[in-house]
Here is the input.
Amino acid sequence: MCLFALLAGFFPRIAFLVYWIARPQAVSAVFGTVLWPLLGLIFLPFTTLMYTILWRPGGLVGTDWLWVVIALLLDLSHYASSAYANRERIPGATSGA
Here is the structure.
């Protein structure tokens, strides 16, 4: 379990893929189709992993949503920091300094 937590923290795409292979019925129970987890794996891996781990048959309740929002913020901050680090490569972008 501790090894999976480290894997999820550093490599959420690999962790979700391992979780999907190990427990395909759990992922299909959460999403019902292959499209949504595949899109989550590509665009929001940490959010998809957190949502899948926290989901139960009644849905998410209480502080579960807090963890999903934190995961979403981590995914979005990753994209924002990547865009900021590569701002010179973006056509039409001007440097602030």
